Amino acid sequence: MLVNGTPYRTVWLEENEGEVGIIDQRKLPFSFETVILKTTEDSAVAIRDMYVRGAGCIGAVAAHGMYLAAIESSAADRDFDTVFQEKGEFLCSTRPTAMNLRWAVERQWAEVAGISSDADRIAKTREVAQEVADEDSEWCRSIGEHGVSLIREAYEQKGKNEPVNVLTHCNAGWLAFVDFGSATAPIYAAHDAGIPVHVWVDETRPRNQGARLTAWELGQHGVPHTVIVDNVGGHLMQHGMVDLVITGTDRTTHTGDVANKIGTYLKALAAKDNDVPFYVALPSSTFDWETKDGVADIPIEQRGGEEVAIVSGILAKGDCSEVDVNLVAPGSAVTNYAFDVTPRRLVSGLITERGICDANEKSILQLFPERA
Ligand code: MRU
Fold it and tell me: What is the pTM of this model?
């Protein structure tokens, strides 16, 4: 996507061997900065400390991190496979809910198995990192092609030449992937096709990915949008001001349960109560093909309490550097569950790169029969 007119992806291979470029998302929207990763440790820090975040982007950075891991493993004085395995596990430990992370690491392990020369292993992991990024981008583009039909239908149903109001939570935009995004891909496709669309952007406490990232992205692409606090969605839905909810997901079981940023479940409940269609957009790399019961069995990442207690932003007046502000009464306990699980019964459908299906095992496996 374009940043001030220049095309960017969220992660890329630098021409120099052993260097990977990323956008430092912690600085957005106030400053656009890129960072070079040179080690597995750098990649783990970038994922854990959320320089990069979002399902597909985490997966793609992990795939690139495994290329750096291959370089390190071949220079280590221990057996390549053992070190490469340890480094992959280390990357996987950084964000436990994110499905794409393990998916990318396992893919690199599988691709390298059976190769015996260090140079070939390194070349292979570099090639696979690029493949993962290209595939992610292509899948998100296809999600847009399929998902735009929902926005078009909503527009035709309204029949008043009024914009379709889509509500989204967190950031499942191009910053959360390599390009295009999942939840935003149908929105960008609709906007580019001339269908009037307006987006309600949940601010998404505690890290404010909606207010900071989704709003910035949509603004860069010229899509009309309004940032709302997280608790407004129910009110808007009750008053007919939301036509469609589209969110992303960090992990979706093959039975249709959706793990996504904390607060998604409440939006799904409000949508159900108000007959507002609630769709989830995801590439196949985000499906968990093993877990059956998402509510019981998806591990939910708990992050540091400081993310709840402290918000950061720039001063309303004057200096443009970021400042941290403490919000919570001194001495009060805080807790920080990063994700929740929306049960399949609340999900109207899943928008994937192969088409739209119902959120149940039968319908998902019809689109992905090779997983049956
Ligand atoms: O904690 P984050 O920012 O990595 O959370 C992930 C997300 O961006 C959202 O949950 C998103 O809706 C799904 S990932 C495309």
Answer: 0.96
